[in-house]
Amino acid sequence: QVHLVESGGGLVQAGGSLRLSCATSGSIFSINTMGWYRQAPGKQRALVASVSSGGSTISADSVKGRFTISTFDAKNTLYLQMNSLKPENTAVYYCKVVSTAGPIYWGQGTQVTVSS
Fold it and tell me: d(Cα 59, Cα 76) in Å, to the nearest integer?
């Protein structure tokens, strides 16, 4: 059974930084992409950034230049460095894994709250 565990969320003032981590466990034979999504209250879950096994990244326009997604390491751990945080970045941040075989996995989420 595959589990994803996010950590690193918390309360930070506007302009501050946080680093999110996504640790995976279980049998994921091969990963196609890993990514970060977020869901703010009353809004749909949306892509923040993702990275492929080949290292290609995609980021939402609103976070470009401020958020950096890592490539996933041999332990399939993923990071998201978030700098210059804004109140509108407040959301629950989720890690997502798309395996090469097809199954998709989600973590339970970590809350990020940015105060003004």
Answer: 19
